[in-house]
Amino acid sequence: MSSRSRTVVDSPYGPLTLVATDGVLSALYMTEQRHRPPQETFGEVADREDPPFAAVIAQLDEYFAGERTEFDVPLRLHGTPFQRGVWEQLLMIPYGETRSYGQLADALGKSGASRAVGLANGKNPVSIIVPCHRVIGSTGSLTGYGGGLDRKQRLLVFEGAAGPAPAGTTTAGASGAARATASDTLF
To answer: Which residues are part of the catalytic machinery?
Structure first.
């Protein structure tokens, strides 16, 4: 049976709940995130200095400070084979760039499956590190984001992949990078 633990950290985008399964990061949820499982499934509260949380928190801090170009923490992503394929494609989107749902479907060899890609993208359990915010509509429009469109816009502006944030919002920063490497991911 798997062991799960959790901790919560502050970020420019609100509190982030980090979840580890058997000592490997398996989830990063924002408050009020769509498809967020019930809190009781996240396991016992752990110390922020426990593995893997200390490394994840350090890398998130560097990202938000504009000092990190890639995440390299191991990930354990649980999902269907199709979902895991989509999430692996997300890890390939470079910092500061975007892809459309259709482009991801094409990369998976599933032309015409952009809606299925969108559903899998929305169920990404490790937001920010697995950059589902970098996926946009075919016309360049911001569409769906489990953490809310305001956060998606702010993340894209922060990474330099979008224009200015809408009036009344603030961005987390102006530079930095985040891209976990597919080779560090345990599926």
So the answer is: 132
